[in-house]
What we know:
Elements: H1 7-20, E1 25-29, H2 33-36, E2 46-50, H3 60-72, H4 80-96, H5 98-110
Parallel strand pairs: 1-2
Amino acid sequence: MMPDLTKESVKFFVEEFRKEVEGGVALVWDQASGHRAMEGEMPGGITLVFLPSYSPEPSPMERVWKALRKELANRIFESLEELEEAVCEALREFWEQPEVLISIDSLSLVAGGTPLQK
């Protein structure tokens, strides 16, 4: 989890991401200023792909966040570690039961979009 979306935080994320993931990677990001600030400063092998500044259909990730908010809303966390644990627990369902993630994205099929997975 990042504390904010400043250029420095995004740069830190990218540096840590690069340590974990090798090879060519495309990061698909929205047009947030912290993301835009990294344009032209990405380490080798990382390509930025920006979503349009306005999309009438929410991206699949927006539907995932909506599902996560249902699990995390109206709760008080005593620490950042407790919040991270709750987020990981909520995401675990997607990892262990990919059909849940696929069902969240089924709306994109109805709207004529592209599913996360077929």
